[in-house]
Amino acid sequence: MGQLRRGDHGEWARHWQYEELPGLDLLRAHYVRHTFRRHSHEGFTLAAVSGGIEEMSLPEGVVRAGPGSVIMINPEVPHTARAGVPDGWTYATLYPSVELVSRIAEESGAPPGTPGFGETAVGDPHGAELIRGVHRAAEAGNALAADSLLRVTIARLLARHGGQLPSRAPQDAGARAAARARALLEARMADPPSLERLAQEVGTSPFALLRAFRAAYGMPPHTWLTDARVRRARRLLEGGGTPAETAIAVGFTDQPHLNRHFTRIVGVPPGAYRRERAGRPPARQPDDGPAGPVDGRRADGPPGSATGRTGTGDVPTE
């Protein structure tokens, strides 16, 4: 699967998919200076911190997570992430889709409704080890173990830390305007209107739209648009598009513009992201742009480290 490449400050990362686990993305990384800008995910985020401290800003405030912690972020919750200590943080993350989590919840006998998590970070060393076990099994190519552990992990986290997501309240006029503005930005991503023009098109004032949009989506329209562009870029790259083509298609000025925002939100450059999904080894390529945190392959550390073995080994069970 190729050699790990280090970025500045000893950072490394690998963001990939295992074909035997549809509906799931995996990320392992060590970040020091890298900062995730405000963004959200269509699916869930389930992460196990194994070293250092990760500090996140969420709607409820600042949350810090250290070794033995499990991080659980529900879909569409805006957040940022950065190192909470000078040496950064190391973690393994699962990004299961809403459909995958809902299916596992139903199979495990959870109450009807959309499943979710009530706490962002909890001390749960066994849950953290289960998450790392999914990574180890997937990287070893052990489909049976990876699939089994994934289901055990999600079912266990739901049983101990989960609940039902609250139903959406009826939309007021501001929320309806924000929803229309979001749809317009989605449709005209490559050539979006100004805030004033956008407000005119949805029948409100610029300041009222700013307030309503932030209340509905946790970020202003321009930040949401950047996040949406990166989401669409991911889909285009997964379909085989080049970073240069993708940058223009989603409305970024050029490829360096895509590289910068994509890396800040996803954690790896678009070229590395594309190659992992095409099954190519992550050797340095011109389309990566400036060097940054990129692909590794170990569950808890870089190749050759004591914590980074990839053999099948023993995997944790419930």
TrEMBL record:
<dbReference type="GO" id="GO:0043565">
    <property type="term" value="F:sequence-specific DNA binding"/>
</dbReference>
<feature type="region of interest" description="Disordered">
    <location>
        <begin position="268"/>
        <end position="318"/>
    </location>
</feature>
<feature type="domain" description="HTH araC/xylS-type">
    <location>
        <begin position="179"/>
        <end position="276"/>
    </location>
</feature>
<dbReference type="Pfam" id="PF12833">
    <property type="entry name" value="HTH_18"/>
</dbReference>
<dbReference type="Pfam" id="PF02311">
    <property type="entry name" value="AraC_binding"/>
</dbReference>
<dbReference type="InterPro" id="IPR018060">
    <property type="entry name" value="HTH_AraC"/>
</dbReference>
<dbReference type="InterPro" id="IPR009057">
    <property type="entry name" value="Homeodomain-like_sf"/>
</dbReference>
<dbReference type="InterPro" id="IPR037923">
    <property type="entry name" value="HTH-like"/>
</dbReference>
<dbReference type="InterPro" id="IPR050204">
    <property type="entry name" value="AraC_XylS_family_regulators"/>
</dbReference>
<keyword id="KW-0804">Transcription</keyword>
<protein>
    <submittedName>
        <fullName>AraC family transcriptional regulator</fullName>
    </submittedName>
</protein>
<keyword id="KW-0805">Transcription regulation</keyword>
<dbReference type="GO" id="GO:0003700">
    <property type="term" value="F:DNA-binding transcription factor activity"/>
</dbReference>
<keyword id="KW-0238">DNA-binding</keyword>
<dbReference type="InterPro" id="IPR003313">
    <property type="entry name" value="AraC-bd"/>
</dbReference>
